[in-house]
């Protein structure tokens, strides 16, 4: 099963199983989360995972 994790401006918005669902998550996050930033930095900057613009 594939999981798509949605991030906007370094804020985690949620996850879904399809691109259509991911696009519906919106672009408004509750706020910046320093822990989330640290978790996201490593795979994104190491280019370990594909980044898909929504």
TrEMBL record:
Protein name: Uncharacterized protein
Organism: Comamonas denitrificans
